[in-house]
Amino acid sequence: MIETTPKASSTLQFASAPIETILEVSHLRKTYAKKQALQDVTFSLKAGTSFGFLGPNGAGKSTTMKILTGIIKADSGSVKLFGQELTTDADAVSKYIGYVPQEITLYEKLSAYDNLEFFGQTYGVRGKELKQRIQEVLTQTGLLDRAKDEISTFSGGMKRRINIAAALLHRPKLLILDEPTVGIDPQSRNHIFEMIRELNREGVTIIYSTHYMEEVEVLCDEVAIMDQGMIKAMGPLGELLDRYGDNAIYLEVNGLQELPPLEHVTSTRKEGSGWVLETERMNSVMQHLLQLASTHSWDVKQLTVVRPSLEHVFLRVTGTQLRD
Amino acid sequence: MKAIIIKELKLIRKDRRSFIFLLLMPILFIVMFGSIMGGSSDSSAISIHVIDQDQSTASKSFIQQIDNIMDVKESPAASLNDELDKIKRGQFSSVLVIPQGFGAGMQQGKAADVQLHEDPSAKTDLAPIQAILSGISSEYREQKLSKTLLANGDSKAQVEATLASPIRIQHIPTSADHFDAIDQVVPGMTVMFVFFIMITMARRFFDEKKTGLLSRVRSTNVKPLQYLIGMWIPFVLTVIAQCVVLFAFGHFVYGLQLGDLFALGAVILCLSIAGTGIGLGLAFIVPGEGAAMVITQLISTGGALIGGLWVPSYLMPKFIQNIGHFLPQFWAQNSLQNIIAHGAHINDIWGPALILLVFGLIGLIIALVRLPAFLRSAVN
Fold first, then answer.
1. Tag placement on chain B: N or C end, fewer CB within 10 Å?
2. Mind telling me how many Å the CA of A113 is from chain B's nearest CA?
3. Are A74 and A114 in contact (CB under 8 A)?
4. Which of B243, B264, B272 is nearest to B341 (CA)?
5. Which of A30, A32, A81, A107 is the mutation pick for testing B, counting most B CBs within 10 A?
6. Burial environment of residue B110 by CB neighbours within 10 A (0 to 12, 13 to 18, 19 or more)
7. Which residues, 6 or more positions from A14, have their beta carbon under 8 angstroms from its beta carbon?
8. What ipTM describes this predicted complex?
9. In chain A, what percentage of residues exceed pLDDT 90?
10. DSSP state for residue B41 in the 8-state scheme
């Protein structure tokens, strides 16, 4: 169960639960040359969660992730991993965290195997164990047969898969992925989704940053919506949809130019060839519409309950559309 | 750190641009400079254009005497104007004309004039020609004197004693069996191209930063100092390999004497630390790859010129020689030539070797000071 206090503050916390808390982030602030990149970001994660960071470019997702991985330091605030403060125990970062950056950070002139060998060694994996792990992650990525090929000969999707594999060699407990599917084909995207689901099933906690709503819906069971350096809302996906999604009906009638006045409808807006009618009394409005259709012999093309979408949640929470 | 070293060595091995800059180019330069300067210490390589307008026995004998010392290129008697045009165009520096009446004049015991038409702008080329002709002229004078003295009744011994110079020059080699152009060219080109490693180094560091690889490596176990040293060592090894290949090329292709291999190895090690240390410092202070390229060119070619890598330092003006003392290239060339040409050992070259290490150390200190800022700039 997650408690949130949306809008009022970005200091949102998961309620304590019997499941182990793996990560506790408190009051992170970061400023780049007078631009405040993070403003009081607070959240915590339980082990085994698949957590999505949703927000436009510049929202502060990457900055948060780079602080979590020790690449940059926050101006203030703290990050605890398994109860250990990261700033005083930097080795914990590399021991427990696997980081997949937004860019494809691989050596183009080296083979996939050589790249994985290098990153495995930088995480402290050596010898037979490293060889075995390389075989395993190459199998996971479906690129075992391309192990000896130069990365420069790979497609964008293949590179993305190896980019993820490089962060898995030391069996991290927390995998942080910063927009790992940018610019790839659907096949590779599906492969990556399946890899992430499999890792999550194996108990790896996932933090997944994206500006694609559908990726969050498919992969994450908990979501934080970020904008302008703040967490605007956070919680389980279903809960966010319930809390911020519209109660609305969509009506489309052939030849109807204008809707008659309707009781209990709080707002009406034109969408496509029909109207979205927001209401707190769905059944009553729906019955009324059916009566009107029968009375006026409307040629009804569509009369449906609008399913709450994350896009709508984002719009409600941030007041803007999700931008690229 | 070992992981970074191995990875870097693999990348350097696959970098064709570096191979061209570090090995192919210096070999081409050695071959080119070797051909131009090869045998320049041998006077038979000096050539002189001669026009014999007299065509007498005496003129032919005179030409033969010149030919024993220089390479004579004889031109037809009517070609004087063409030859003078060629001098003006800079194709050669002089032409010697033996005018009609040269043989007759000699027979009559008169002074027989020859004319040396010179390019006044080619003093360096003219100097040995003038000296050789002057020597031949002296020989003629001695022959004339000798004949006169013998005719006056002096014995042969008395004549020799009379003509003997009061000053005798003894030629005593200081230590080397020989010193020729290749002893200048091979170490010179090696030292010059060692400093081109700085471009490769700067490029690698900027690539790491630009592609986000440095940022990613920072999320692993690798500490900043391990990263720096891990990136540096492969370049030191590369320069050592570069020097070994170039000196081996000089040895096997041109018969370059390598001297004390232990001392040579020590200088090569110090040179590689100096070149890569400066490269390291440069990579951490310049704003971008373009600036690194320009500064490397300046250090490599400017240093080569002033440091005596192209022409021996002692041939340059004194103030240039003095500036050269502040450059690592001068000390590298100085110690390498001492080993190759003067049979120096480790005891003789430790001073210049230490100076090279100091240059490397300065670069390393700059890199260490700038490292935190470099790492910070890599994440944005």
1. C
2. 12
3. no
4. B264
5. A107
6. exposed
7. A2, A3, A21, A43, A44, A45, A46
8. 0.73
9. 23
10. T
Q: Count CA atoms closer than 13 A to B136's CA, side-chain side.
A: 17
Q: Any idea where the domains of chain B sit in the sequence?
A: 2-38+179-377, 45-163
> DSSP secondary-structure letter at B23?
I
The three-state (H, E, C) secondary structure of A242-291, written as one string: HHHCCCEEEEEEECCCCCCCCCCEEEEEEECCEEEEEECCHHHHHHHHHH
Q: Which of B4, B15, B213 sits opposite A105 (nearest CB)?
A: B213
Q: In this structure, is residue A321 part of a structural domain?
A: no
Domain assignment present for A158: no
Checking if the pLDDT of A19 tops 60, the result is no
Closest CB to B219: pick one of A71, A106, A110. A71
Same domain, A27 and A101: yes
Enter the DSSP assignment of B194. H
User: Is A302 found in the same domain as A178?
Assistant: no
Query: What are the tens digits of pLDDT across the range A153-185?
Result: 998 889 999 999 999 999 999 999 998 888 888
Name the superfamily (CATH) of residues B45-163.
Answer: abc type-2 transporter like domain (3.40.1710.10)
Rounded distance between C-alpha atoms, residue A179 and residue A104, angstroms: 11
Residues of chain B in contact with residue A32, where contact means CB-CB under 8 angstroms, are 380
In whole angstroms, what is the distance from residue A149 CA to residue A115 CA? 11
Instruction: List the beta bridge partners of residue A42.
Output: A11
Q: Which of A243, A268, A299 is the last residue of a domain?
A: A243
Q: Do A74 and A190 fall into the same domain?
A: yes
Total of domains in chain A = 2
| Residue-number span of the structural domain to which A227 is assigned | 21-105+166-243
DSSP 3-state assignment of A235?
strand
Distance CA B178, CA B379 (A): 57
Nearest CA in chain A to B207: A107
Is residue A121 within 8 Å of residue A159, measured between CB atoms? no
Instruction: Indicate if the pLDDT at residue A289 is higher than 70.
Output: yes
Looking at chain B, the whole-number percentage of residues with pLDDT higher than 70 is 94
Same domain, A176 and A77: yes
Residues A39 and A93 in one domain: yes
Mind telling me how many Å the CA of B296 is from chain A's nearest CA?
Answer: 25
The reply to whether A141 falls in a domain is: no
Asked whether the beta carbons of B267 and B353 are under 8 A apart, the reply is: yes
Between helices A156-165 and A127-141, what is the axis angle to 10°? Answer: 140
Per-residue pLDDT of B31-52, as tens digits, reads 888 777 655 444 456 788 899 9
Within-domain flag for A145 = no
**In terms of domains, do A185 and A267 share one?**
no
Tokens 């203030």 belong to: A76
pLDDT in tens, B233-270: 999 999 999 999 999 999 998 888 888 899 999 999 99
In this prediction, residue A1 carries a pLDDT of 34
A98 and A173 together in one domain: yes
Dig out the tokens for A301 from the structure: 């093309």
